[in-house]
Amino acid sequence: xxxxxxxxxxxxxxxxxxxxxxxxxxxxxxxxxxxxxxxxxxxxxxxxxxxxxxxxxxxxxxxxxxxxxxxxxxxxxxxxxxxxxxxxxxxxxxxxxxxxxxxxxxxxxxxxxxxxxxxxxxxxxxxxxxxxxxxxxxxxxxxxxxxxxxxxxxxxxxxxxxxxxxxxxxxxxxxxxxxxxxxxxxxxxxxxxxxxxxxxxxxxxxxxxxxxxxxxxxxxxxxxxxxxxxxxxxxxxxxxxxxxxxxxxxxxxxxxxxxxxxxxxxxxxxxxxxxxxxxxxxxxxxxxxxxxxxxxxxxxxxxxxxxxxxxxxxxxxxxxxxxxxxxxxxxxxxxxxxxxxxxxxxxxxxxxxxxxxxxxxxxxxxxxxxxxxxxxxxxxxxxxxxxxxxxxxxxxxxxxxxxxxxxxxxxxxxxxxxxxxxxxxxxxxxxxxxxxxxxxxxxxxxxxxxxxxxxxxxxxxxxxxxxxxxxxxxxxxxxxxxxxxxxxxxxxxxxxxxxxxxxxxxxxxxxxxxxxxxxxxxxxxxxxxxxxxxxxxxxxxxxxxxxxxxxxxxxxxxxxxxxxxxxxxxxxxxxxxxxxxxxxxxxx
Length: 588
Prior knowledge:
Blueprint: E1 5-16, H1 19-25, H2 27-43, E2 51-56, E3 60-65, H3 68-85, E4 97-109, E5 112-114, H4 116-125, E6 133-136, H5 137-143, E7 152-157, E8 166-171, E9 195-198, E10 202-203, H6 211-226, E11 232-233, H7 236-240, H8 250-257, E12 261-270, E13 273-282, E14 287-297, H9 301-330, H10 338-351, H11 354-370, H12 375-390, H13 397-414, H14 419-431, H15 436-449, H16 454-467, H17 470-483, H18 490-503, H19 507-520, H20 527-538, H21 541-554, H22 560-566, H23 572-585
Parallel strand pairs: 4-6, 9-11, 9-12, 10-12
Antiparallel strand pairs: 1-3, 1-4, 2-3, 4-5, 6-8, 7-8, 12-13, 13-14
């Protein structure tokens, strides 16, 4: 068997100062700035200096060089360029990078490099002054007389997970006059959305060289979660500094990184089998919220990584959402921000009852009073008003549609690339009798941004039923159910599968799905309307009349005309069959 390819190379670790803070201020501006710096100052010059980037992590990168002198000289030139250009980042602060350089014995795996020396480079970099670089004592001695850079001796320094202190030397283009302690990062700013970090997974395989399996899994999960806009994901490079640490205090990580949630796990390889485990932990109390494991063959490693990433993303989304709702509930009413009000509204929206829906509208109205351009709040409020119409919870459809129309306009301008807001907007447009094709396009856009968004798959399912393609709707509902079987919307998926089955000409299946949904959510009244239709077309008029009476008990003023108006988003032949079923059940 061929031995792994190893080589001794200088490794440069670069990290953007305050990246999480900059992204929180303006994600788009920060990403554009980082890409511009990379294109103009790094990718154009590094090759000529004998260097090559082998890993990028959002807030930094790792590069190898064929010469110690070249690595230090190129890094110094880069820092001088950034310093002299005085590049401003979002919020007005100066854009700065930290750099660390070590000579590392690395393992080569394809286009990537692994080994403890790479971890050392990251940890040395974390002690660099903002805008400068740090190197080890051995590097400093090797450079003696070959390069004119005024390095300052920082003295023996303790590095994370390094048993012995390491003497490091620092340089800055503006000069350093005395040894400096590593800068304490400013406390993370208050976030208007929850934040999560995916820690390096433990390698339980018994072979150090297998750690790249675990690293690859973490990178895939981090990339997948980064598409979820419901929460902020800490970049991979920041999480990498915790690699290999035993007995990590989750609460301390929460304070260090300003995160509310941590994903941790392990990868165990035995022969040709791999087991990947992951769990979600809340950092304030260190409590476990969710955990799971996946087993598979080494030959299917990439599929395993994809499966675990999808599992983690689809499970974490509702898990964090429930935790955030609980956080908002515990806050005093006078301290609630717009985000908290949105979180408080969600259980009321999920309840599918007229009283709860009105409470959700009140909470979302308060949120919009605090932040008039809050796209998610506007989209959810429009959806809530749409429910008033679709479920016959109001007699004034025109007023609800006027209010919702203004909210749809606000949401359309401000949802940006938020999959949840796009899905809520799609829901609102469908229920208000708007352009269903455009609504499905919004749901599809949400899925382009986050392919594991269970609610977007559900909404896509409803849209295709309304458009007359029920089999495609069923496929979307099934995808939603697989992604998030414990989601609060699971019962609505089953109601959708009922309508899809009815649209496809299978009323008995429609009855089964509707009854299952109602057993999952006792107290629902409006699905009796669906059951009346399905029983009528199945030929059981007694059961149809009973279901209609149950529906009318909660909606005494309903009529065939009002239901037709409320459901005008259905394609004509489906709506005609639906109303025919109600008429057969006795509705006038």
